[in-house]
Structures are given as C-alpha cells and as structure tokens.
Design goal:
With 535 residues, this protein is of the alpha+beta class. The chain has three domains: 4-47, no CATH class; 57-395, Alpha-Beta Complex (Phosphoribosyl-aminoimidazole Synthetase, Chain A, domain 2), CATH 3.90.650.10; 469-535, AhpD-like (Up-down Bundle), CATH 1.20.1290.10. The protein is built from 18 helices and 15 strands. It has a seven-stranded mixed beta sheet, with helices on both faces. A six-stranded mixed beta sheet has the order 1-2-3-6-4-5, covered by helices on one side. Strands 14-15 form a two-stranded antiparallel sheet. Helix 5 links the parallel strand 4 (144-154) and strand 5 (182-189). The longest helix is centred in the first third of the chain and has 18 residues, at 123-140. The termini are far apart.
Length: 535
C-alpha cells in the first residue's frame, strides 16, 4: 500500500532541491513516477518485480571476465607503496592468489576476496559458483579455509528480493559443503549483480605454496578444462548449447578442496588457480615469479566440448582481448598452433582448476590421484624448461618432449651394485625414501628398473594406495600382510614403517601379520622370525 504522506514529503523535498534525493542525476518527478506512478525514494516497488530472470542478460561481462585486466591492474599497483611488514609472508609482489600473514611460528592467516558478475542464469547456481571460486584462492596456497564473509551488489529496486536470497543461499550451501561458515557480509545497491566472498584460512608458515616456486624440469598439471569464458559469452548471445552450459556449470561448482589436498600430499613446488586472467595470464605470473620459461603442449590442455568451435566461429569475448593485451608479449609459438586453440589459452575462466608445478617423477602419480578424487580431466600439459626472465612457449602437437631430466639414484654402492627403485615407484609413502634391494649376481649387477615403465607403475601404485573406500591406514595393514605372504623382505620392512606412520598400532600390525601367517603357514612364520632376528 502506498504511503501518500511519505511520498508527498519526499517529493516536495526533491523538488525544492531540483534533484531526486535518491538519484541526483535526474529531476523530480522522475520518468518512472510519470509513467508508472511509483516513487522509489518513498520505498515503493512495482508489484510485478521479476523473479524468473536470466542473470547473464543483465550484465556486460560474465563471471571473472568482469575483472579489471592485468595490464590496467599493474598500472594501478605500480603507483602504490609496498607493504614492508615482516609478518606479511605473501603480499602483492608476485600477484599471488591470497595474502599470508604470520601469527605465530607455526600459524599464519591466509586471506582472499573474490567478487564477480553472474555467468549463469540461475541465481542459486551463480551463488554456488561464486563460493567455489572464492575458496579456490585459499586452496591454491595449500591453506585450510575457516570462515567467509559474503559481499553482494544487487539491483534491489529492479529485481525481486527472492533472487538475491537465492544467490546468497547457493553461496552458503556451497560454503557449508566445504565446511566453511558464513559469519557475515556486506551489501550495496548496483545496476549489475555482483557476488562473492572474503575468505579467511590458516596455513603453516613453512608450508605455503605460492605461484612463484616452479623449478626447471617441473611438469605442469591442470585439474579442470578450459572454456568457461567462451561458453558463458556464447550463452549471453544465444550461441551456446544447453549441454555446454550444463557442463561448465558442473565444473564451476566443483570445489578445488580435494585437488588441494592431493596437491599438498604430492609436495608440488608451485600452484595457482586459473580464473579471469586465463591460463596464459596465470602462466605468465608463474614464469615471472620463478624466473623460468614454461612450455605448454596446447593439444594436451583439457577443454570443454564446443569451445574451439565457438572460437573458430568468431565468438570471442572482450575478456580474451584484454588478456591478450597483457600476456601476448610473453608468448612464443612453436610448431602449428591453430588460432582457436591459441585463443583458448587466453579465455577468462571462472572457478577454474588448479595449475601446479611438480617434480616430473611425481606428475603421473599426481594426475592419477586427482582423477581418483573426481577431477576426470586432470592432465600434464607442459613443463618448465630453463631459467629466463619469464616466457611461455605454446607448442603444437600432442606429444610431450622426450628430453627428461636425469634421475638421481636412490642409493649406490661402489663394491656391490644394486637395483635402484625409488619408494614412490613402489608404494605410497610420502615423503619418498630409498627402497633398495641388493640383488647383484656373481656375473655382474642386474640392470636398474627405471624409466617410463617404472614411473607408470609408480603412478598405478599411488592411485591404488590413495584414500578411497579404504583409508590409507587400512590399506597399509593389508599391504603388510601381502608383503609377508609374498616373502618380500624390503616390502615388509618398508610397509611396517609406513603402517606406523599412517597411525597403525603394534597390536593392529600384529593381527595383520598373523592373518598372513594363517594363509602361509609355518614356513611364513619362520621367514618373518628370520627378519625379526636380523633387526
């Protein structure tokens, strides 16, 4: 019901000023009052405020493509003072995903904020994507997210409050999935909808993973496909299929939490999440931070179905152009790189995957574990080749370079050659430790079991022993029993140690050993006793 007295009081004040008190850019009475008899300054709202809206139709740039470009951002930041507080362990110097502030010798805060416009039409799904995207910054640093504050800009005078409520509900539900309570927030009126979160987490000061730690020889691993930007833009202009939109929505709402946990266990050297600056923009930051050249095999980069076809048809959003403006200067092409595939490297992503630099002998095992954790498209996409001032080589073809770094032996003996097998290639313990079996013969040493086959076997074993329906602790007890049943002395010794490190008690280990003896009989008991006698 219209409050006539309130309307009269406010309109009289506006007319005396010569400006609407809610929007000084227009006079009073405003066009809406003349056309629809509604005074928004008096709190009046249309009875038919829309609830079923296509959010992407109400914004200029969708998702992380709405962010300020790297070029403009660098110009702005270049004129600001540096932060010199000694407790700031990670600041703005490397354009990292989050800031890190040390509290104590073994505790630091990880803090980040991320806000962007809708890139899907459904409000609830948009809220979920915004939450997953905001959390990724903390995950990319190897941190644990603790709390979140919601930030929303919304055209409350044009859209129903129910739309805003659904956006926030989607974000809170996704945060709840991550185990992160939303403890407050901030809202403001805007003509475009924007939503996101400020996230606070914790990390050990000695275990921070930055985007600047890549080392020469490292493999580059990406966990999610590219193409969310081009498909979102195609949806805005009516060129995307429903299947493509559903595919990117499923990816964007997937948390990067499990990928971060696998990443930390693998001991990666560097990581970042791929968002609005595109894969190329984040590669440039990684290369500049570490002072290296990175080579990407473009055909190995995972991508959403239909993304290349849209780019080939000229469906190229402004976000790609802004990313080209910054990162193209660091690009070098090698071999045949089709233009649509090249442009995909610059496509701004929303809630994209994690990009990791990891030692090459751990890369296949890392990918296997990521896929087992639900990241079906995780792939090795390139490598760090040499020190430099920062360069990205985009190479055509699907084959990875063959010139692998020389592997250091895990043990050596001048008088009694041995077969050398790294523990990571035969079991799941981390960090890897030497696991050598002295099997030399009188006629000369056997050849070392190393190379690609050993690495693939190691990847298989790492995937088989990763947490799943059975925990690592349960699996180590099983492996202890199987090792004894196989009468493999180094396996028994290695996995007895691994079982204890996984939290198995002596009583649990003893029961597992007795199960093996129950199947192998007295000879197996004698074999184990001989191991015990030998220490």
């Amino acid at each position: 019901m219209t409050d006539r007295n309130k309307r009269r009081r406010i309109m009289e004040r506006s007319m005396r000023l010569g400006h609407c008190i809610c929007n000084p850019r227009q006079a009073c009475p405003c066009p809406e009052f003349r056309e629809r008899n509604i005074c928004r300054c008096a709190g009046e709202r249309p009875e038919d405020m829309p609830t079923d809206v296509a959010l992407t139709a109400l914004v200029e740039s969708a998702g992380c493509a709405s962010k300020i470009s790297q070029s403009d951002l660098r110009r702005v930041l270049a004129g600001l003072p540096e932060v010199t507080n000694p407790r700031v362990l990670v600041g703005t110097g490397t354009c990292d995903d989050a800031g890190v502030y040390q509290l104590t010798d073994d505790l630091a805060l990880v803090q980040s904020v991320d806000v962007f416009t809708p890139n899907v039409d459904d409000p609830y799904t948009f809220g979920q994507i915004a939450a997953a995207n905001s959390l990724s910054d903390v995950y990319a640093m190897g941190g644990q997210a603790l709390t979140a504050l919601a930030i929303i800009a919304f055209p409350i005078e044009d859209l129903s409050h129910r739309v805003m409520a659904e956006i926030i509900r989607g974000g809170m539900d996704k945060m709840a999935e991550a185990g992160v309570p939303v403890i407050g927030g901030h809202s403001l009126k805007d003509h475009e909808t924007k939503f996101g979160f400020a996230v606070t987490g914790t990390i050990h000061p000695q275990r921070i993973i930055t985007n600047a730690g890549a080392q020469v020889g490292d493999a580059l691993v990406l966990t999610k496909p590219l193409g969310t930007g081009v498909i979102s833009f195609a949806a805005q202009v009516g060129r995307a299929s429903g299947e493509a939109v559903q595919a990117i929505a499923a990816s964007m709402t997937q948390l990067n939490r499990a990928a971060a946990e696998v990443m930390v266990e693998a001991g990666v050297h560097a990581a970042t999440d791929v968002t609005g600056f595109g894969l190329m923009g984040h590669l440039v930051e990684m290369a500049l931070g570490a002072g290296v050249t990175i080579e990407i095999v473009v055909d190995r980069v995972p991508r959403f179905a239909g993304a290349l076809e849209l780019l080939a048809e000229g469906v190229i959003a402004g976000g790609i152009e802004r990313n080209l403006e910054y990162a193209e200067d660091y690009e070098e092409l090698s071999g045949e790189v089709p233009e649509p595939l090249r442009l995909l490297m610059y496509d701004p992503q929303t809630s994209g995957g994690l990009l990791m630099a990891v030692a090459p002998d751990r890369a296949e095992a890392l990918v296997a574990r990521l896929r087992a954790a639900g990241y079906a498209h995780a792939a090795i996409i390139g490598r760090v080749t040499e020190p430099s001032e920062g360069q990205i080589i985009l190479r055509g073809g699907a084959d990875m370079p063959q010139e692998d770094p020389v592997e250091e032996p895990c043990c050596s003996s001048e008088t009694e050659p041995e077969i050398e097998v790294e523990l990571e290639s035969c079991c799941c313990s981390a960090p890897p430790e030497p696991c050598c079996a002295s099997l030399a013969t009188g006629s000369g040493a056997l050849p070392a079991l190393s190379g690609a086959v050993a690495q693939r076997f190691g990847a298989f074993m790492n995937a088989a022993t990763a947490d799943g329906a059975l925990t690592l602790k349960q699996k180590e007890l099983i492996i202890v029993a199987l090792s004894l049943l196989a009468k493999c002395e180094p396996c028994v010794r290695t996995h007895l140690k691994a079982a204890r490190e996984a939290g198995c008690s002596d009583a649990e280990i003893t029961e597992a050993l007795w199960l093996a003896v129950s199947m192998g009989g007295a000879p197996l008991l004698a074999f184990y006793n001989s191991l015990s006698d030998g220490g």
